[in-house]
Amino acid sequence: MDRVAWVLEAAARAPGGVTVAELARTLQAPASSVQDLVNGLVATGFLLEQHRRFRLGPAPHVLNLIAGRVVPRIGQAELDELSRVAGTPVLLTVRVGLDAVHLARGGEDEIPRLVPLADEHVARPLLRTAAGRLLLALTDEVERRGLLDELARHDPEAVAEFRSALPAIRASRISRSEGLADPEVSALAIPVTEGAVVTGALVLTHRRRGRSERLFLDRAAARLLAHIQERRT
């Protein structure tokens, strides 16, 4: 399963597709085994083959449609507008397994090293990001319990801290990170919803200089939530 997941991500990240030889070299696996694997993924629609190069196919999207899972659809112009209203950069984020992944960003980022994390959709540990903590907190209880059991194998201290913060996050529907992922970054996350379903999170970021960032981000989130509510009514 790890190999399947890696092959799909490699194909998704390669604009021109990826060859069996390239996959085999990176996986350190026999080309014949990798060929059998990609053949099965092509047959089931997870990969598309063209000129012996493999790209991501439509099957992952179709499975999301069948499951009724909606990927948040916020265009660049709208993200930039949300950033203008908030007065801070905005990141659109989803949960992928045990990671948080930024789909897009709006506004001018005052912390340049965060830009490639969004533009290259780099996976980040759930419990080390404001968005990850929010999305985990708002996940179905049974699924959340299983995810926390898995996370506890790798970072029991972070899981214990998250469990203590969980009631407050669920009650407020806001999550914070005060330097969890980056000691110089403060972040606050609010949910993106489709009806009653949480599909992702919007993250507001600010350079961390002292306690003033908390009030700054609180005010930014309040403006953003009011703006979103006004657009819905």
From TrEMBL:
Where in the numbering of this chain does the IclR-ED domain appear?
52-233
What organism does the record attribute this protein to? Streptomyces ehimensis
PANTHER family, A to Z: HELIX-TURN-HELIX TRANSCRIPTIONAL REGULATOR, ICLR FAMILY, HTH-TYPE TRANSCRIPTIONAL REGULATOR RV1719
Task: Quote the protein name from its UniProt record.
Answer: MarR family transcriptional regulator
Signal sequence bounds: none
Extract the PROSITE patterns matched here: HTH_ICLR, ICLR_ED
This protein's UniProt keywords: DNA-binding, Transcription, Transcription regulation
Q: Which Pfam families match?
A: HTH_IclR
Q: Where is the HTH iclR-type domain?
A: 1-58
Q: Which Gene3D superfamilies match?
A: 3.30.450.40, Winged helix-like DNA-binding domain superfamily/Winged helix DNA-binding domain (1.10.10.10)
